[in-house]
Amino acid sequence: MDSPRWGRLYADTYQRVGELARKARPMLCGFSACVDINIPLDAALAQLQCATEPAPLALAAELERRAAAGIGGEIVVDWPAGPAWLEQHCPGEARVGGTAAQAATTLATLGAPALLALRDRSEPQLAVLSPEVLLATPAGLVNARRVRGSGSGKPAHYLFEYTAGRPAGRVIPPRSTRVIVRFQDDDLEWDDYFADASAQLAAEGGTALLSGFNAAPPETLPGLLRRVAELARRWRDSGLEVVHLEHADYPAPGKLAQVLEALGSTATSMGMSASELERMRPGPEPPPLRAIALGETVGVRRVWVHGDRWALCASRRGEPDRDFRALLAGCLVAASRAAAGRPAPVRWPLPGAELARLPWPASSQVRDWTVTSCVAPHLPAPTATVGLGDSFLAGSLLEFGQS
């Protein structure tokens, strides 16, 4: 397919996303939410590299190394004083963080209903959510704007963004992305009100999202996984079609293995970035073949992968047209966010967006798997890169949440 053809497809998708949002059934979003502090990497490095203590200098070296290679991802830093140091020397902007909260806020921005599991209902956490995100309370489902904040909240995560071609410290990054830095494990956002409400809502719900396990403390993870697996089985037994497990950066391979063993048989699909696919399934094969191999290993029916310039879905469901529409919607929602710098209504055309050629066929069949791919609109100098994968996820799942 040539670029003009992709342009026409995205013009059609632009018209369709609004209708998808209007007709969407509620998406059940668990179990990750936090406050992100967004800091431009160049400004942060100027402060970190002037420090005399070893900890900020070590963080600066790692951030600069990643920027030089165009590596994003998430890292855990053993520096208890880190948050206070950054707050004093590198103030940033507070925004919504966590895959589930990002997806719920994106859907609410598009006009689609999303129920979020949220245990941390502190004022800082509520302040970064879309006011239209649904939360479960003893009185029923209410919009986040109607919930009064309580508690001190969890420590924030720190996101260092950089843009391709713009200097960051002593390097010029080859691609635009961000590095997530956290200084502690985060409790999973297990929410008893959400569990009860979502079990009742599953029969009329659209899709469900499972996320946040990479940051959970190792000692509490097994018990949390049992509770999540039991709840997800209740959703499936009620008729929910899609239970999606979103991947993330795992600091230890053993933790990821625990998650896949506990949830792989319950989830119907799994999603990740191209770099996460590379870490999970390294090798010389092209991404479509590695996505299939991963799907067979985990046991899910669909594997979604999003890259900078492409996205794909490897599926055993035999619904390539539906998968293709979902990919286009996800890519347009993510690109619109990249242009706006935060969750935003879709736009097309997007000034400066590039449409490359796919490095493999748009559709192929491998055994009982169908691989569907699309070109993603790529902005070489996006306003922001935070949350693009979560926005892709939210937009793609809109296709599967229709009434």
Commentary on this structure:
The protein has helices at residues 3-23, 41-48, 54-69, 82-89, 99-110, 123-128, 192-201, 221-237, 253-263, 274-280, 287-298, 320-340, 388-398; strands at residues 27-29, 34-40, 74-76, 93-97, 114-116, 134-137, 140-143, 157-162, 177-182, 207-210, 242-246, 269-273, 302-306, 310-315, 363-366, 369-375. With 403 residues, the chain is α/β, with parallel strands linked by helices. It has a nine-stranded mixed sheet with strand order 5-1-10-11-12-13-14-16-15, with helices on both faces. Strands 3-9-8-2-4 form a five-stranded mixed sheet. A two-stranded antiparallel sheet has the order 6-7. Helix 1 (3-23) packs across helix 12. The protein folds into two domains: 3-33 and 98-151 and 187-398, UDP-N-acetylmuramoyl-L-alanine:D-glutamate ligase; 36-95 and 155-182, Adenosine kinase, small domain, CATH 3.30.1110. The longest helix is centred in the N-terminal third of the chain and has 21 residues, at 3-23.
